[in-house]
């Protein structure tokens, strides 16, 4: 039987396993571990059950046909010869399972874990002691398995897992073996590995041949740190293993100086004059690396298991620097009740970082107390799941610091899906490369695994910037308008659990942050995103007071009357697409009136957008609601916002500021001046270069002689262009078709003759003209197709948007091939071989043009707008910076160039023209934007 070690009754329960049952687990068994409210059941296929009864601290070995107390007594008397046979069998089965899973043979065997502790009163509101079904007060003692993501499914844990039970099942061998059922520990054993032969540290292990349950703990003091590993032997005698460091023995562990413990985490609010009040919280930090490595190596050298990173719990005096939470239907900030959020969306990635400060000052001067931003996954992890996060271009933490310095709260929208009219909705394209059949925005295993690994890197970056830690973040959104897409609760629960793991469960009152969702004001949409414990907000644009009240009534009725009313996307403007008749516009008076109505109800609001910005580079998204529908977002994301794309104060800004001023208790700061705008006039192109002549310099890793044209994703390319090349024959039909073209294909014969283009969704076929020269003796000639990714779909059912020539190119149903594939990301143009424009003649091919804009003095530098009304379609680069797309279909007619991209002296201006076949002479710089 299992006997409890009552000497440790105030901590975890420990059990000594004794049984005479042999071969408990057969080769074809699946192992089922069930955490019940009355204990833990471990069973096999034949319903043989070990029940660890937490109420009476005993074990019942049962069978589907025979249960007897005598068996338990017999087990008690056979602890010498048959010691822990059940768990010896379990070890053997797990070892066999590890080999199978190491070989990726996932069909055999399975270990299933179910937790029935969750119920409607507890779900998503607390963290739990998994064994005893009780709320865990020390939130850090509850750990979600990072490798397996053992998270709630329909309010229970039920997952097939691969021998990685982490904080649920701990097994080792040789020196000691343990069966640990507790989350309160120092180390976690996760995946199985081959034995690591390394020297053990200077530590002594007692009772090396016993099989027992093990408790692990670490205590700290001012002078030393002690690690205790306490096996329970057959006679219930505790044996202690001490590894400690003293003043004379510092070779194992040293305490970290307090100055190294998150030294920058709490400085922000102190800088603006609010002194944090001291309190005590549990903080994790890594102990000295040498000691950790020794302990880890010692454990792994004596077992077949890998130990997770060891972290020490240490009490320290720190500050919960503030509180922002929901209570009695109101937001409460630092004990100030009925706090009203007046927020505006500002996407840091749509504004040059050197201009963040200017935009934030103008936002602050409007009376806003909060800003809201998405965090695009593809921006910060563009190179694959194993890559580090990249903040080199847009430093997120710097943005958060600037917001804090301006005393602006921040609402973050970390995804993983953003929408935002951004390329692929913020998803990285390598998801489609690595998992071609991935089900995005669902509980698809591959998708969840990728999200988990990304968030394990991102969320710890955000945690120090929570408001409760002295930073500006008061709320974090789960997914984005999920009710408009799906209702996969397992997916949402997964995201919620990960957010709680890394950002805390305090909901802004005792640490952590408020978690929220955003959806349209309908029951169906709100249902799609509904999770217990998550604050649900609604979004809608300017409307009547009656409709506003109705929208908030729906929010309150479906969620809870104890939640604040909040519109988290109040639309100040709207999206504009290429080929629209005119740019989207919304009346300043209408927007201001709607805002006043919302605020008069005591509701909170976020205005989307308050500053829109630009879709730099290839970052614009697209919308598609059917296969015949594909709308491309323009380069400008001005959005008719209160602050214009160029950072100017608009009439809408002034109207909104006047409304906001009525609802704030302090006078508003003065409005900063608009930036200088410069009109540099006409500048001539001086050099040109053919894209075809520079394939070697521009193409990354071309792939030759493929049976069909490869997609961008298959070539591990995210954005830009691809050139496809093959050979045709005069005997073939000149009627060419591309099935499932994504997005635009321009055809060229013999690298010169531009045959025109086909474009999604308008057409899929083209008639080419046979060449009369440069034909081989057997009638062969060269065909090139330039493929442009015009922006992956960012919202809707067609978001799985691979780019390329689809299923291939046919000539009267005859597939062409083989193909050469040239990826052209065009992120570096420095290697282009230029010609003087006077001697260049290949204007019918995709052509780079270069001009030099000379600015004589620093005072002449200002924001400017390149007019492309004499251009066709292409890309603009300023001093090597990819500013974005231009296209003569409108309604956008100019591209905003921020002054920070320009220098005194010569400025290199490059365009890639892909549409016009005649020479372009010059370009013009204006001091104002043009939209139809």
What descriptive keywords fit this protein?
eight-stranded parallel beta barrel, 50 strands, Jelly Rolls, nine-stranded antiparallel sheet, 932 residues, disordered N terminus, TIM Barrel, 4 domains
Q: Based on Cα principal axes, name the global outline.
A: globular
What's the story with the biggest beta sheet? 9 strands, antiparallel
| SS-based class | alpha+beta
Q: What fraction, in percent, of the residue positions are helical? A: 10-25%
CATH names the topology of the largest domain as TIM Barrel
The CATH superfamily label of the largest domain reads Glycosidases
Unreliable residue stretches: 1-31, 33-40, 50-84, 97-292, 302-319
User: How many domains would you count in the coordinates?
Assistant: 4
Q: β content, as a range? A: 25-35%
Number of helices: 15
**CATH first level of the largest domain:** Alpha Beta
Write the CATH architecture name of the largest domain: Alpha-Beta Barrel
> Looking at the chains present, what oligomeric state does this protein adopt?
single chain
* Average pLDDT, all residues: 75
Rounded radius of gyration (Å): 32 Å
Distance between the termini: 82 Å
List how many beta strands DSSP finds. Answer: 50
